[in-house]
Write a structure and sequence with these properties.
By secondary structure, the protein is of the alpha+beta class. It has helices at about 5-15, 55-60, and strands spanning about 20-25, 30-35, 35-45, 45-50, 70, 75-79. It has two helices and six strands; from the N terminus they run H-E-E-E-E-H-E-E. The chain is globular and about 35 Å long.
Length: about 80
């Protein structure tokens, strides 16, 4: 995971209409949080939105893909 400061600023600007939130750097990327709940991940110039199963189906139908990353055990974790 990696996060460029310019992309973080871009994301902050584009999400500003949502109200109060914070961006916390972690593991080279960042989590976007509101009221203690993470609703997005910033990584490698990509904004990953968290969704429940129903919304995930709709988002995938529109061309989105799921966030995934390798684990220490060699498996792939998908969020």
């Amino acid at each position: 995971m990696a996060l460029d400061r310019a992309f973080e600023d871009w994301a902050r600007d584009h999400l500003s209409g949502l109200g109060a939130f914070e961006i916390k750097r972690m593991f080279g990327g960042a989590g976007v949080m509101a009221d203690g709940v993470m609703f997005a991940i910033l990584d490698d110039d990509t904004l990953w939105m968290k969704a429940d199963e129903a919304l995930s189906v709709e988002m995938e139908a529109l061309g989105s893909r799921r966030f995934s990353m390798p684990t220490k055990s060699g498996k792939v974790m998908t969020l």
